[in-house]
Amino acid sequence: MMVVLAPKYSAKPWNKNKEFMMFLEERGAKAVLFSYKDSRFGCLSRAAAVLLYHWPHLCEFLALNPSINNRLACLVREVMGLTYLKPVLAVFACLGVHLVEPFFAHTISPRATHSKLKLFYTSLYRSMDVKEVPEDFYTFNKPVFDGVEDDLLEGVKLSYKEEVLEAVTKVAREHVEEVTKLASVMLPHMRTVLARQRRDYSIDDERFPAQYPVEEQAANVDETPVTNLAAERACGKVDYRLHKTRSLQAVSRQMILQRCKELREDQTPSFRGYREAAMAKRELELTWTSSMKERMQKGSDERREASLQHERKKLESLEKLKESGGHFTSAEEVDTFLADMTANNMKEKQERMKTEMQYARDTSTLLPKTDPLFKIRKTDINGKQRDKTAQEFGEALKVFLGRKGDRKVMDYNTFKECLSKLVTGS
Fold first, then answer.
1. Is residue 79 helix, strand or coil?
2. What is the distance between the alpha carbons of residues 337 and 348, in angstroms, rounded to a whole number?
3. For the chain, which residues score pLDDT lower than 70?
4. b/e per residue, 193-218, with b = 16+ CB within 10 A?
């Protein structure tokens, strides 16, 4: 859902990051969007937290911009109508803060050793065996799992931002029963995954015996790197230089000789000569930013006017349909309307069905306006275009109404019942 607003895809035509940022600026709201490439490991949990914070903003933004109706936006509108989505997102966010981020931080820490990681994984695995998560799980007052230090949790909270976690806590308090049950259902499965993925640390020898114990893979477990990040960095540096020199030996010699020459000649590079160029660059960036804001503001006004015109057109169609008893809501109503069609009323029924199709197109959040189902005109066998007949309009409208009727949306009570069955195992 956040992809439609993500900064990473701002260059894509379907992405609305620039428009959404302008929308937030107009309302004085803080933007907490982040780039996915900078949060590859904890992307899901952090995106869930950010979505809960921006939930009211996103709802208002989509409501004010009905013209944004590409397939992705239609999917987002439909998913945001699910009443049980908020507690699910809250659980994902809480697990990210208490479990995912600390796990990642310990794993890539430069001070980590295999012995320390074994203690951390083992204590984390044991503390995940709980029947019900405590209140601190969604208030974030203190760590919930063993091995997670207070300062580490504070660092995670700082990266997520205080206002984001407050939004998560608010949603969790509103659905505390469902959040508690869902977390209790998910933790045993996550516990199993942890034991299976880190089986070489002998976390649970009964269920997942070690295949290649860490102690046997390394001569000295406390001196062996726990990750390959340093090797990846070195390979990346060599690869970058190889694109220029085309020789591995030349790459290593170049790096050594360059540093030796500087040491011999006692060269201390001065960057004062770059001040003028740096200031010019800064001025250019400020001018560019200012001009882009003006263009965005002008574009925002134009889109707002287009949105108002679209709304007026939609209301006119609705008023016209109300004169005939209201718009159709089921395929059966369409069949009833077309059942008594004769040569005398064919033109009248065609006009009514055309209006029905236009209204369905303008109000649809299930399909984009460009969907072939909403086409008004049709090309005959002679290559000439004509309006669809009343029967053709009716067939297309029934397909659309059938798709709406086929969607089985689980209500919140059903969600609670299913969750209770999962917890009790019945």
1. helix
2. 11
3. 1-2, 37-40, 244-274, 296-304, 307, 365-366, 403-410, 426
4. ebbeebbbbbbbeeebebeeebeeee
| pLDDT score for 5 | 78
Amino acid at 420: S
Q: Give the DSSP H or E segment for 378.
A: strand 377-379
CA–CA separation, 184 and 134 (whole Å): 10
Give the pLDDT score at 248. 62
- Name the percent of the chain in helix, strand, coil, to the closest 5: 70, 0, 30
**What three-state secondary structure class fits 6?**
coil
pLDDT value, residue 108: 87
The helix/strand/coil state of 97 is helix
Tokens 């029967």, located at residue: 391
Amino acid 424: pLDDT: 80
Report pLDDT for 38.
66
Secondary structure class of 205 (helix, strand, coil): coil
Neighbours of 359 (CB within 10 A): 21
Q: Which residues pair with 378 in a beta bridge?
A: 386
Instruction: Give the pLDDT score at 406.
Output: 45
CA atoms within 13 A on the CB side of 6: 17
Whole-structure pTM value = 0.66
Q: At which residue do the structure tokens 């989509």 appear?
A: 62
Q: Which of 223, 31, 241 is nearest to 114 (CA)?
A: 223
Please state, in angstroms and rounded to a whole number, the distance separating the CA atoms of residues 190 and 332: 48
